[in-house]
Design goal:
Elements lengths: L11 E5 L3 E6 L4 E6 L9 H23 L29 H11 L11 H4 L4 H13 L7 E3 L2 E4 L7 H16 L9 H19 L27 H8 L15 H9 L5 H18 L15 H7 L10 H18 L2 E8 L11 E3 L4 E9 L9 H26 L18
Helix pairs in contact: 2-12, 4-6, 5-6, 8-11, 9-11, 9-12
Length: 428
C-alpha cells in the first residue's frame, strides 16, 4: 500500500450522533468525522463545502478564542442552573435540566435507569463532588462517557450492561497504567483500586490548567449567580437526608478547561424562556426581509466580528433587532458548549523522562502524561431554537408530574371514618 493511501478495511467504526459518524484508524492515530445530511435535502456540493468551511471557521475564529489554543483542534452537559428572571417555573432554579431530562429519557425508553451523575457536581470544583460525579458516569455511562485503549473502545456505549462485570473488565485493561509493577492481585479489591485511581487522575486533569491564553480570566457572569448544587443530585440529596451540609463549592481554577467551558455555557443568560421572544423578533424581521439573513450572519461567516458581538453581556432589552440577534447568537454558542465533548488522553511516562516535556499527573504508583481537548464544536443551528423551547417545557412538565407521583406514593394513607384507631399514651 502506498504511503499516502489508506485501506478502507483498516478503518474502525467508533460511533455516531444525529449529525455525524466517526471512524478511526488505530495504527495512524487518525479520526475522521463524516457529516450526515437528510436524503430529502438535495444539497449542492458548493453548499456542503460552505457548511464544512463554516464549521472550521467557527471552531478557529470563535471557540478557540474562548477556550484557548491548546484545547481546540480545528478540522463536557450544562454545568449551571438558570438564574434568569425570565424563568417561570421555580423548579428550574433548583434542579438542573440534565437531572430533569433523565426522567423523560427513561420514560421514553432511551435509557433503562436514571443516572446518578449531575453536571453541577462535576463543575463544582469540589473534589468530593467531582469524584462522585465521575463514579456515577462510570456506573451509568449512557452515551456520556467512553474509554478507548490504543484506539479500541473498552468502556461505554449505548447499551447498559452489568456494571460489576464492566468495571472488572475495565480494571483489567487499565491496571498496567496505574499499577505497572503488577503488585496488585485481581478481584474486587483490585477493581475498586483501579477505578479509584482513574477517578482521582481524571479529577486532577480536569482541574489542571495547560493553557495560558488571554481569556484565562474571562468571565461571562459573576460567580455568585445561581445555586451551587442541584436538589436532584443524589450526592446532595443523601447529605440532606443525613442532616449534613453539602461541601463548599470550591470553584474551578480559571485556567482549566471546565472553567472555560462553564463560562461559555453561561452566555445563555436569559434561559430559553427569555430567549424565545427575542428569537421571534429576529424571525419576524427575517420574514419581512429574508435577503438580510446573510448580513445578520445567521449562517456565517463566523469571523472576528461575529466573535466580538458575543462579548456584549448586557441584559437590558432596548427593543432593537441588534439586541435580540446578539442574545440569539450567544444562546447558540452556549448550547454548543453545553453539548461539546471533552477528550482526555493519558499515556504512561517513561522512568527517565524529565519533567516539563509534557503535562504530567501523578497517580499512587505511576506518572501519566496527559492532554485535554474539546471536540464537537459545531455551532447549534438557528432553526433548532423552537425545538429547544418546546423540549424545555416538556422536560419540566414531565419532571413535575414524576415528582408529584413519587411524593403521593410516599405519603401514608389516612385513616377513614369507619376504621378502628387506638391511641397509646406513654409517660414522659
Amino acid at each position: 500500500m502506498d504511503e499516502g493511501k489508506m485501506d478502507e478495511n483498516e478503518w474502525v467504526y467508533h460511533g455516531e450522533g444525529n449529525k455525524s459518524l466517526v471512524v478511526a484508524h488505530a495504527q495512524r492515530c487518525v479520526v475522521l468525522r463524516f457529516l450526515k445530511f437528510h436524503p430529502n435535502r438535495n444539497k449542492a456540493s458548493e453548499e456542503i463545502l460552505q457548511h464544512l468551511q463554516n464549521i472550521v471557521d467557527f471552531s478557529k475564529n470563535v471557540m478557540k478564542q474562548f477556550f484557548g489554543e491548546n484545547y481546540v483542534h480545528s478540522g463536557p452537559k450544562c454545568g449551571f442552573i438558570p438564574f434568569s428572571s425570565d424563568v417561570t417555573q421555580e423548579l428550574k432554579r433548583k434542579v438542573c435540566r440534565y437531572c430533569m431530562h433523565q426522567h423523560l429519557k427513561v420514560a421514553t425508553g432511551k435509557w433503562k435507569q436514571i443516572s446518578k451523575y449531575c453536571p453541577l457536581d462535576l463543575y463544582s470544583g469540589n473534589k468530593q463532588r467531582m469524584h462522585f460525579a465521575l463514579k456515577s458516569l462510570l456506573q451509568e455511562a449512557q452515551n456520556n462517557l467512553k474509554i478507548f485503549k490504543n484506539g479500541e473502545l473498552i468502556y461505554g456505549g449505548k447499551e447498559a450492561r452489568d456494571s460489576v462485570a464492566d468495571w472488572s473488565e475495565l480494571a483489567y485493561h487499565l491496571k498496567p497504567f496505574f499499577f505497572p509493577s503488577n503488585g496488585l492481585a485481581s478481584g474486587p479489591h483490585c477493581t475498586r483500586a483501579v477505578i479509584r485511581e482513574l477517578v482521582h487522575v481524571l479529577t486532577r486533569v480536569l482541574l489542571t490548567s495547560t493553557d495560558k491564553s488571554r481569556l484565562g480570566t474571562w468571565r461571562a457572569v459573576p460567580n455568585t449567580q445561581g445555586p451551587r448544587a442541584c436538589e436532584a443530585s443524589p450526592f446532595s440529596r443523601q447529605l440532606r437526608c443525613q442532616g449534613k451540609t453539602p461541601p463548599e463549592h470550591s470553584g474551578l481554577p480559571k485556567g482549566c478547561l471546565l472553567y472555560k467551558t462553564l463560562q461559555v455555557q453561561m452566555l445563555d443568560m436569559l434561559d430559553i424562556e427569555g430567549l424565545y421572544p427575542l428569537y421571534s423578533r429576529v424571525e419576524r424581521y427575517l420574514q419581512d426581509f429574508p435577503e438580510q439573513r446573510k448580513t445578520l450572519q445567521i449562517d456565517g461567516p463566523y469571523n472576528e466580528s461575529f466573535y466580538q458581538k458575543l462579548l456584549d453581556l448586557s441584559t437590558e432589552d432596548d427593543g432593537t433587532l441588534a439586541y435580540a440577534l446578539t442574545k440569539v447568537q450567544q444562546y447558540r454558542v452556549a448550547m454548543t458548549a453545553k453539548d461539546c465533548s471533552i477528550m482526555i488522553t493519558l499515556s504512561p511516562c517513561l522512568q527517565d523522562e524529565s519533567p516539563g516535556q509534557r503535562a504530567v499527573v501523578p497517580s499512587s504508583k505511576s506518572r501519566l502524561a496527559f492532554s485535554v481537548s474539546v471536540l464537537d464544536l459545531d455551532l447549534k443551528p438557528y432553526e433548532s431554537i423552537p425545538h429547544q423551547y418546546t423540549l424545555d417545557g416538556k422536560i419540566v412538565s414531565y419532571y413535575l408530574k414524576a415528582v408529584r407521583t413519587k411524593d403521593a406514593a410516599a405519603v401514608p394513607p389516612r385513616f377513614t371514618g369507619n376504621e378502628d384507631c387506638t391511641l397509646v399514651l406513654h409517660k414522659v
